[in-house]
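Following up on my earlier thread - several people asked me to post the actual chain instead of describing it. Fair enough. Here it is, all 661 residues.
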Amino acid sequence: MKPHLLLALAGLLLSFRFVFSAFAAAPPAFTNAAAQAMIEAFLRHDAVRLDAQFLDGITNRQQWEARRPELRQQYLEMLGLWPLPERTPHQAQVTGVLEREEGFRVEKLHFQSRPRLYVTGNLYLPKDAKPGAKLPAVLYVCGHSGRGRDGNKTAFQHHGMWFATHGYACLLIDTLQLGEIAGIHHGTYRYDRWWWQARGYTPAGVECWNGLRALDYLQSRPEVDPERLAVTGISGGGAASFWIAAADERVKVAVPVSGMGDLEDYVGEKVVNGHCDCMFLINTFQWPWTQIAALVAPRPLLFENSGHDPIFPMNGNDHIRARLERLYGFYTNRTERLFDIGITPGGHSDNPELRLMAYRWINWHFKGSNAPVTEPALPTFEGKQLRAFPEELPADELNTKIDELFVPMATNALPSTTEEFKAWRDGRIAELRRIVFRPLPKQFDPQPALALGSKPAEGSVTSAPDILTHWKYFPAPRGKSDAPRWLVVLGEDDSLDAKPDWVTKLAGDAPVLLVAPRGTGPTRWADPAPFYVRRSLALLGRTIDEGRMEDVLAVAARALPARSSPRSKWIIAGRGQTGVIAAYAALFEPRLAEVVLVDPPASHRDSPIFLNVLRVLDVPDALGLLAPRSLTLHTRQPEIFDRTAQIHRVAGGTFRTATPL
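Reply from S.P.:
Thanks for posting it. Predicted structure:
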């Protein structure tokens, strides 16, 4: 069968909704391919939806300027930089100087962007600068070019040479992963550090902060004009150019090269698979990606790319250009004076044509000359010559563990009175809504209601666009219809075909509604490295586990009576990480009167993964939010949940731990 026909067939299957009695035909079996098609359709459509929200009704400069302060704060928060960290002393050291007869010198240096977070770099300076002259300065942020112990700044030294021989100071800095002190960029791309998402951490935040502190350093230099600062770089450096210029208005000119696509490219065309984590912020506020670049306006911005760059396709480039042209049009009728694009033939490379356009754009805006430029070939330095740490690396460095420290975790003081508990609970839930569960609908459609009577039933509901959530109902034996009903959230290893043994041990012969949220049971998909589904969801401001909670709430809205009563009591239960998902569902669905968890994880560092959740609370405190509802934990480590018990003692209700099943 042709591929387009297969996709059409999968889409047709996914559009059906099933509600079956025991005597109806079973729903069609979902193959893995159909489940994959389901989640990929969701991702594509959500990417298009978010990108379409660029400017979001803003039609003029005044409206944009009024919105910018809020957007800038959101932006910094998504990088892990709000509130901005303290600007501690640089502790800068120049460890050596290289003199070149071509008219420039290089200072090998390092500074600390925060205590013990080292930034290694090379400062290129003209030798013939007049005493007291103030030079325009360029911060060059480097792309992904592995040069080992020498740092990736050595791969881009020709940029520093050109600027220094044309009357600029140019500081090239290493990146976190490919610098002299090698940290980690590939947390979710390669190393299964999904807790980065729960922590709200991205190495893009470190690269941005290092860049802001590099600007501080340049402004501290007597040779530099503090009012004429530019930033440029390619690939990862192109992304960092956007991060820095969007964050700091001291950047007067920006030339990001091959550094940004849009969500329709990253997600819809799976371009995310070619990028490491430093290319992305945590999209907490579900931004259209071009909104990052928009924060540079109205400062001069040259957006460069190559025509056949496979990881920055021209489709996305064209979308971004059109959106930014519209925004810059709020400021001028001659947008090309402030915003332009530069496209060269070829693929993803630091080719001379791209460099010449960048040099010329910066010359135009800092020196008033738009004349063509050339780049004479100059001999390069051996990488080892440019090291800021020529021999030993600092023993006190935090570069290799900065992901554990960069974004603070929540430290919640527990309430000691009922009144304090109410305020504490309201505050935590509001913050969860603000930065963790922002995509969660405020309410769910209760219709059509599920027919949960005296007969077995099964079916599915459309719990989100393109997403089907399957369920199966097991009624109580005759004569026990008054027993509380159980809503049981299944995990990836549970089957929807029959009640798992652990469910039978919990619920006995009480009526049970099994729910298989997305990626479990009939809709379990494959997500091998480089983890397209999980990483794409984060670009859309979501996670799999957040979506699963949404699925549970969508089913609950159709299963639970409009008003709870002792005769219609519902208990929600789950095992492992799915149990914590069930608990969060109960937090947002007050008709679930009781919560029972089996072997819940101790921390969101392990699971479930929700964006930014560790900035608000961890699992024990989250379970405390359920008070005064009844909560039972079947766990081998009850001491882990001492904070939960303390909260319940203050708030009332029943809390108990029980032996594992």
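The two ends are 48 Å apart (CA to CA). That should answer part of your original question.
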